[in-house]
Amino acid sequence: MLKAERPRSLPIAPQAPVARRKLPLADSVRPVDKAWRPIYAVWEITLKCDLACRHCGSRAGKAREDELSTERCFDLIEQMAELGVKEVTIIGGEAYLRPDWLAIIEKIRACGMQSTMTTGGRGITDEHAKAAHAAGLMSVSVSVDGLEGTHDRLRGVQGSYASAFNAIRAFRAAGVPVASNTQINRLSAPEMPELLERLIEAGIHGWQLQLTVPMGRAVDEPDVLLQPYDLLKVFPMVADLKRRTVEAGVTLWPGNNLGYFGPYESLLRGTMPQGHLGSCGAGRGTLGIEADGTIKGCPSLPTREFAGGNVQDNRLVDIWERAEALRFTRDHRGAKDLWGFCGTCYYADTCRAGCTWTGFTALGKAGNNPYCHHRALEMDRNGMRERLVLASPAPGEPFDHGRFEIVEEPKPDSPNL
User: Fold this and answer.
1) How big, in percent rounded to 5, are the helix, strand and coil portions of the chain?
2) d(Cα 55, Cα 78) in Å, to the nearest integer?
3) 6: buried, middle or exposed (CB in 10 Å: 19+, 13-18, 0-12)?
4) What is residue 31's predicted lDDT score, i.e. its pLDDT?
5) How far apart are the C-alpha atoms of 5 and 214, rounded to whole Å?
6) 293, 76 in Cβ contact below 8 A?
7) Cβ contacts of residue 395 below 8 Å, gap of 6+?
8) Contact by Cβ (8 Å): 113, 138
């Protein structure tokens, strides 16, 4: 895997634009819009952050100018419970940089929902962890993206690796179960086996893996991103990691963009209801919320193209049921809505190009996703491979993306991955 040259300066966090307000909603609600309900919500309660992660899709750093007040947050929590949400994960930025983060956790629990958090952990102290446990935090996932040098390089702050493991220790000592999440890219991939051993030793109960997506700051360093043909080596490694987590009693959670339908699908996702991954769940089972009240079907999707409305203008249930931007997976017609390789794939009607976030941010259009193990294997059998080349850089705004072009080429005799 390529070790990209370290950039000389930290990326500057942009000021997020104020929320787009009073977006149009459909006049009527269809049966399918009532049939789907979000059971899981990921809520960015602030965009303020104390890290400068090179792969951050939201380019977090500065708080939004129009973040929701505590009162509006409490009202939103009640609306989530009424809509049927079962679990709320608070994120940022860094959630703990918002002064009322503990009150938000308490309110989530008071409304009968599970309360979890994802954090980089840089500023977590023993007091933070004890207070979070007292507020009702049920589990926390601490981000660790490689061994110390790689993690600190990707997170943009020296010492962030040590801080992450200190956060794991502090939360466990306070009685909060701790998981971890890791980005797979060309810097972190070679270190995954050793990293897992350190996380097992630290006492995690679960580990979520996902591919670094070409969004936000990740577009600024395209050499760090995996190429589609890298999946030929990444997936056998992930399969070995899965077997090791089973031995250690750790649950491995493959992220939604870690796919699809290759020879390890049953090993990685055999416990799912269908025994394999389904299609994108944005706007069906998941809900994304930005700190200014913007609602999306998935928290990771670009705001400009996928914002459905704002809870400062409309009730959450009305946005969920009537926003066109949240309906795209409910209306999906399978292969007819796909293009490129995905439109011809054997799994088209089931997979539907997998993770919308990944395919859209790479190519600027949903319905074709080059980050697919099955696809890479098919290309390899035919003596070919796909390579992504940056055609248009990202403009430098939160949740932005560039545009890549797919180059289809003969595979080299000895590929240098």
Assistant:
1) 40, 15, 45
2) 33
3) exposed
4) 97
5) 18
6) yes
7) none
8) no
What does the alpha-carbon distance between residue 60 and residue 10 come to, in Å, rounded to a whole number? 13
Between strands 309-310 and 294-296, the pairing is antiparallel
User: What gap in Å lies between CA 61 and CA 227, rounded to an integer?
Assistant: 28
Q: How far apart are CA 1 and CA 363, in angstroms?
A: 23
3-class DSSP state of 296:
strand
**Do 47 and 13 touch, CB atoms closer than 8 A?**
no
- Torsion angle (degrees, nearest 10) of CA 181, 184, 187, 189: 100
3-state DSSP call for residue 252?
strand
Question: Which residues of the chain carry a pLDDT beneath 50?
Answer: 1-3, 8, 417
Count of H helices and E strands in the chain? 15, 12
pTM value surpassing 0.90 = yes
Report residue 111 CA to chain centroid gap.
25
The string of DSSP letters for 69-103 reads PHHHHHHHHHHHHHHT--EEEEESS-GGGSTTHHH
Side chain identity, residue 244: R
Q: Map tokens 């971890």 to a residue.
A: 180
pLDDT value of position 227: 98
Query: What is the rounded CA–CA span in Å between residue 181 and residue 169?
Result: 16
Helix axes 101-110, 70-83, angle to 10 degrees: 30
Tokens representing 101? 């983060």
* Structure letter (DSSP) for residue 365: S
Cβ–Cβ under 8 Å, residues 44 and 296: no
Q: What pLDDT score was predicted for residue 1?
A: 46
Q: Report the SS3 class of residue 363.
A: helix
Nearest Cα neighbor of 301 from 279, 318, 312, 286 is: 286
Neighbours of 65 (CB within 10 A): 12
48 secondary structure, DSSP code: B
Q: Which two tokens stand for residue 329?
A: 């997976």
Output the CA torsion sign for 372, 377, 379, 383. positive
